[in-house]
């Protein structure tokens, strides 16, 4: 079942998703020591199932799909060939080893491999938003309508596998169990080395929202933008011993002029709202929202740098933090605005994100 009409990504949310919300009762559960109202596991997973199927059955016409299908074909069909195959892989051996294991041990097809990877990725997203978001449907909607689903689950699969493994560190970050979190981050880095970025970010994101670390981080972002030439030189030197060697030369030769400012603005809205409604966040002092606020600020800062440098390389890094914004935004709307205003703002946000979805899919990517 190849998805050729991308409008179905939204249609299912407004039909099946809302029907599931109406049919299945919500229940109470403990989240960070507080009783919260949450979606049940069954409806949350059912809403995600079509997206797993669509990602698994996509054709080669979008993003890196053809390259991933080629990598699957190159993987050995026999486990005895695994060692020799991995010797030929120079980066991200964990990912290619996983693909080879699925092919040689479980004899899955390329579609089966894509679907298993998509299933893991999206079920982690379901777990994250069902557990920590006060409005699961809205958080899931933001993930789809922002085009993160298409950008990552139908394109940057290798990095997004690392991202979703890193998301599993969320309860460890909330409980400050850093050793357990570091273990998962190191595992994720075998899928995509960029996951190591989360080691410093994990510590930067701790504490109250808009704390001194956040202010210092934003000052460094501003300095990087103002002195972008020196920043890129430092970055190029720092990356020489990694798989991103010559990164700056690559994005220059490719004519990569940075992330689209509209995308930067869209992704920065939760962080902007957190500054406007900081007193409400401080009064609530919810550990989940505190973490999500700081992660949203971090992702906005990295996006600002990517706008002045590279959308292909730097613009791919905020995903490790930006997914937390989809937990933050529904909470902000609910707690910063009055009840009637919150409903109007929610509707306006849904319309605005649908508009962004159309812009990105129609004009930026030309698939609608």
Structure overview:
- This protein has helices at residues 8-23, 41-56, 65-74, 82-87, 93-104, 110-132, 136-145, 148-153, 157-167, 170-174, 178-189, 198-204, 212-226, 228-238, 247-253, 261-276, 278-284, 287-308, 319-322, 325-336, 339-364, and strands at 27-31, 34-38.
- The chain is mainly alpha-helical and 368 residues long.
- It has 2 domains: 1-194, no CATH class; 205-336, no CATH class.
- A hairpin with a 2-residue loop joins strand 1 and strand 2 (34-38).
- The chain starts with 7 loop residues before the first helix and ends with a helix.
- The mean pLDDT is 91.
**Physical arrangement of strands within the biggest beta sheet:** 1-2
Would you tell me the overall average pLDDT?
Answer: 91
Given as residue ranges, the uncertain stretches (5+ residues, pLDDT < 50) are none
Secondary-structure element order, as H and E? HEEHHHHHHHHHHHHHHHHHHHH
The gross shape turns out to be: globular
Assembly level: single chain
Give the distance, in angstroms, between the N- and C-terminal Cα atoms: 18 Å
Evaluate the radius of gyration.
20 Å
Q: What percent of residues adopt helix (DSSP H or I)?
A: 55-70%
Main sheet attributes: strand count, strand direction, barrel closure: 2 strands, antiparallel
Number of helices: 21
What class do helices, strands and sheet pairing give? mainly alpha
How many structural domains does the protein architecture include?
2
By DSSP, the count of extended strands is: 2
Q: What proportion of the residues form beta strands (DSSP E)?
A: under 5%
InterPro entries: EpsG-like
Pfam family, one: EpsG
Protein name: Transmembrane protein EpsG
Organism: Blautia obeum
């Amino acid at each position: 079942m190849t998805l050729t009409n991308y409008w179905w990504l939204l249609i299912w949310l407004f039909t099946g998703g809302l029907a599931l919300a109406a049919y299945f009762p919500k229940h109470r559960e403990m989240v960070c020591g507080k009783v919260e109202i949450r979606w049940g596991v069954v409806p949350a997973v059912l809403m995600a199932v079509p997206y797993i199927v669509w990602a698994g059955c996509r054709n080669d016409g979008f993003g890196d799909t053809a390259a991933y299908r080629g990598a699957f074909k190159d993987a050995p069909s026999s486990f005895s060939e695994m060692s020799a195959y991995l010797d030929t892989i120079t980066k991200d051996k964990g990912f290619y080893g996983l693909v080879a294991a699925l092919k040689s041990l479980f004899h899955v097809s390329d579609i089966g491999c894509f679907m298993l990877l998509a299933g893991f990725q999206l079920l982690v997203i379901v777990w994250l938003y069902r557990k920590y978001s006060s409005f699961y449907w809205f958080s899931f909607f933001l993930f789809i309508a922002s085009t993160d689903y298409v950008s990552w689950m139908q394109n940057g699969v290798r990095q997004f596998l690392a991202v979703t493994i890193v998301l599993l560190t969320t309860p460890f970050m909330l409980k400050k169990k850093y050793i357990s979190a570091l273990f998962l981050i190191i595992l994720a880095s075998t899928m995509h080395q960029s996951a190591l970025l989360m080691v410093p970010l994990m510590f930067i994101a701790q504490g109250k929202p808009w704390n001194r670390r956040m202010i210092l981080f934003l000052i460094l972002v501003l300095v990087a933008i103002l002195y972008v030439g020196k920043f890129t030189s430092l970055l190029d030197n720092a990356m020489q011993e990694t798989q991103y060697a010559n990164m700056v030369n690559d994005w220059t030769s490719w004519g990569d002029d940075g992330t689209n400012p509209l995308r930067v603005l869209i992704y920065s809205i939760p962080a902007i709202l957190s500054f406007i409604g900081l007193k409400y966040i401080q009064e609530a002092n919810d550990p989940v929202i505190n973490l999500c606020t700081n992660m949203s600020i971090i992702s906005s800062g990295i996006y600002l740098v990517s706008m002045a440098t590279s959308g292909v390389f730097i613009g791919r890094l905020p995903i490790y933090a930006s997914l937390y914004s989809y937990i933050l935004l529904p909470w902000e709307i609910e707690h910063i605005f009055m009840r009637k205003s919150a409903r109007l703002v929610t509707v306006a946000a849904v319309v605005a994100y649908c508009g962004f979805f159309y812009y990105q899919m129609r004009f930026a990517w030309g698939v609608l």
